Amino acid sequence: MPSAIDCYLCLLRQSLEASRFASNDPRTHRLVFLDCMRKILDSDALAPPPILGRDIHRIIRRVTGNPDPYLAEKQRANRSMLDQLEMARQKIASSADRFDTAVRLAITGNIIDNALGTVAQKTIEQAFDNALCGPVNGSTAALRDAVQASDQVFYLTDNAGEIVCDRLLIEQITELFGKKVIVAVRGKPIINDATYDDAVTAGLTTMENVEVIDNGNDGLGTFLEECSEPFLRHFTGDGLVISKGLANYETLVENTTRFQPKKIAFLFKSKCPFISHYAGTTLGDMVIRIHPEQ
Fold first, then answer.
1. What's the distance, Cα to Cα, between the start and end of the chain in Å?
2. Total-model pTM
3. Which DSSP category does 205 fall into?
4. Omega into 292 within 30° of 0, i.e. cis?
5. Which of 47, 164, 173, 242 could anchor a disulfide with 51, C-beta 3.0 to 4.6 Å?
6. Domain boundaries in the chain?
7. Tens digit of pLDDT for each residue in 186-232?
8. How is domain 71-291 classified at the CATH fold level?
């Protein structure tokens, strides 16, 4: 999926926000911003936005000397979602369809995304209030069938905070269907994407029938040619791949590499006009896209 002009504006906003998280020095902010502008000017217009985003955030870390500018934001998001974990579990337990409810809550967690700017707590709360009554663009029933038909599930996470919501769905996959779930996080920090530390905080590393690995790189989304051998083995295995978030969708939806999964289910909140148009959704939708289509 090639970048749109709107993507350049978004990435420049990210560069300024991240540099301010990483440093209090206005001169550093200016250096980051100018270096990122040069990178955009020299970029390949056909490259997906996450590739340019990866390069820009490498510049931010290099110039500021801060290896994880969003660390405080990630910790705050994890704490906030962990505070809501038991309440969310109660919603699932009391619902008529536990799987459907868990899917909705997991997708709603994708609203926590610093790539599109810091999200107000009130906005997050409203999204969760509407999660159980709003329409889903896609089929939770088809996702259920895909999970049931798979020996195991390979679950690609997206953001910190959101990863706590992912736990709710992972719990249902293991409890309702008895499936093993391999959870993949980013290999190194980038924006507020979940890393192994966030998986530990979310409690995923102590769950039965769950294994956590990282993808071996610092990219936004999933760059298959740069992923580790263990990651690729699970990605191309016989199980279902569940891919969370916009960056994973952008980097995998037109996957033409030799690394092809048997079936992949994209789950995300439609937050970006460019991707909403591409995926045929409306802004704000909870989205499920399963490839190949059933």
1. 23
2. 0.94
3. G
4. yes
5. 47
6. 5-64, 71-291
7. 999 999 999 999 999 999 999 999 999 999 999 999 999 999 999 99
8. Rossmann fold (3.40.50)
